[in-house]
Amino acid sequence: MNDLDLTTHRLQPGQPVNLSEIETDGKAFHDDRDAAEEEFEALVEELAEWQRRLYAEGRQKLLVVLQAMDAGGKDSTIRHIFGRTNPQGVQVHSFKVPTAQELAHDFLWRIHQRVPGKGMIGVFNRSHYEDVVVVRVDRLVPESVWRARYEQINQFERLLADTGTTILKFYLHISKKEQRKQFQERIDDPSKQWKFSFDDLEKRKQWDGYMAAYSEALARCTTGAAPWYVIPGDQKWYRLLAVARVLVGTLRQMNPAYPAPERDLSGVVVE
Amino acid sequence: MNDLDLTTHRLQPGQPVNLSEIETDGKAFHDDRDAAEEEFEALVEELAEWQRRLYAEGRQKLLVVLQAMDAGGKDSTIRHIFGRTNPQGVQVHSFKVPTAQELAHDFLWRIHQRVPGKGMIGVFNRSHYEDVVVVRVDRLVPESVWRARYEQINQFERLLADTGTTILKFYLHISKKEQRKQFQERIDDPSKQWKFSFDDLEKRKQWDGYMAAYSEALARCTTGAAPWYVIPGDQKWYRLLAVARVLVGTLRQMNPAYPAPERDLSGVVVE
Predict the structure, then answer these.
(1) Distance (Å, whole) CA A89 – CA A79
(2) Which of A69, A111, B121, B162 sees the fewest Cβ atoms within 10 Å?
(3) Please, which residues have CB within 8 angstroms of residue B178's CB and are 6 or more apart in sequence?
(4) Is B115 helix (H, G, I), strand (E, B) or coil?
């Protein structure tokens, strides 16, 4: 097993981020799609084995956060990366527009309820980062409120990390041009039309506002314990490979193991 | 596509059940393991497609309840049947020994919180049926309490069914001899030892009590809306096939479809 480089797309704490200047083209990082797909297949197999060990060990926790613009590939990433793991040990939660009850609490209340327990992989399809992005672009709360959330998020993620959770946050980074292509495909393909919403076009008009909001959120909430990865998303095959490398590389470091039996079983015979 | 027979292992409402007299040997129903495995592969592929449609449609709900004696194959069934579906649309919940907070509520309180929402498949690894089986064998509550639960369960499942949930309940039925074989394998194989617990041997001593408790629970809680299936479990390959047939056959009847777009999309061009 070669070591996997985890740093290629990882942001550094304290560095400014400008998403408009970060590459969305996977071909800038990999020039062989066939080789990438082959490596991805092997990594997905390896991931399934690590997931079994993590679950059997029942000690460590892994939280995977996915954020992206619409059509950025969140659903596709979840399906392909976790499509061969055991659903008993992988809990995916899609955070939607908050309910009245959720809004009656602090913004991390509903998030905290969904973090993974021991032995589990938790996957967030959208997350508490909506609360510093969409609420900012749509002016749903005053700036003083969303701005205070950066530190609240960092403290919250620090709590999770300090109590045994490994946190990986992926921003799937597509270009505005690629989003147009994806939207048009959804419109033109009857089997994909159900995914399309006219609201998506409204959000698309605010592209620059979203890039600014994401850039600041990623910069302010990249910590040693919970870094952001900005994954070039214009090619699905590279996006999947890049996420899989970080996941598997991280699990190799976590190195979960099948636990020893509660006591020596040698010679035990079942009657 | 041939029609799948859903009735082979389905219990009938109002009929007495004696598990000791129900076949655990899959070979009594199928004599060609290779053909069974081939059919299973095709069914699992089909299941993944139905699950995508169910999720896209976002209207119907499917609840799958799994019960079995230890080493009866619950975990294995979940892994193999749902190992290729999208974890975003499949939520597995393993009910453990109730916590103090759970015990402070009625026995269906924690169950109700985990039932699937629209578009979802919910899988229960153990369930509210523990509350009429283990509590009876271990005398954790008086008979008047667990006996009242049959009707409480039927009313609860009726509520779920009446509000759009299709319910499939599988009892994975292994012989006492097969359980010995499985336990011994766990003891003798270092990579499986972590699954073994000496508590399991204590439960094994109460085999007859468990059979009696399960038999009555299955008989009393088989309704038209929520039938039990008793799946012969001694051969893994037949157990998987039999469960897959019922699941896929049921989804064919539910027949979820990709939804139409919110309005006509013809001619829409993304800018």
Answers:
(1) 15
(2) B162
(3) B24, B71, B233, B234
(4) coil
Q: Give the residue from B75, B88, B121 with the most A CB atoms within 10 Å of its CB, the best one to mutate.
A: B88
- Identity of the residue numbered A181: K
3-state DSSP call for residue A129?
Answer: coil
- Answer yes or no: is A9 within a domain: no
Contact A2, A39 (CB under 8 A): no
Domain annotation covers residue B11? no
Cβ B196–A265 below 8 Å, yes or no?
A: yes
We report the CATH number of the domain holding residue B139 as 3.40.50.300
* Six token digits for residue A156: 């919250």
Contacting A with CB below 8 Å, chain B residues are 56, 75, 78-79, 82-88, 90-92, 94, 123, 125, 180, 183-184, 187, 191, 193-198, 201, 204, 258-263, 265, 268-271
Long-range contacts at B103-110 (CB < 8 A, ≥ 24 apart): B107/B131, B107/B149, B107/B152, B108/B152, B108/B153, B108/B156
Residue A4 lies in a domain: no
Rounded Cα–Cα distance for residues A252 and A4 (Å): 9
Say which of A56, A87, A204 has its CB closest to residue B87.
Answer: A87
Residue B144 token pair: 């008047």
Q: Decide: A62 and A54 in contact? Cβ < 8 Å.
A: yes
Report the distance separating Cα B76 and Cα B70, nearest Å.
Answer: 12
ipTM: 0.85
Q: What tokens appear for B243 in the block?
A: 């469960």
In this structure, is residue B46 part of a structural domain?
A: yes
* Residues A99/A131, Cβ–Cβ less than 8 Å: no
Q: How many domains does chain B have?
A: 1
The boundaries of the domain holding residue A166 are 19-253
Locus of tokens 């991931």: A47
What pLDDT tens digit does each residue of chain A (271 aa) get?
567 989 999 999 999 999 999 999 999 999 999 999 999 999 999 999 999 999 999 999 999 999 999 999 999 999 999 999 999 999 999 999 999 999 999 999 999 999 999 999 999 999 999 999 999 999 999 999 999 999 999 999 999 999 999 999 999 999 999 999 999 999 999 888 989 999 999 999 999 999 999 999 999 999 999 999 999 999 999 999 999 999 999 999 999 999 988 788 888 999 8
Please tell me the pTM assigned to this model: 0.91
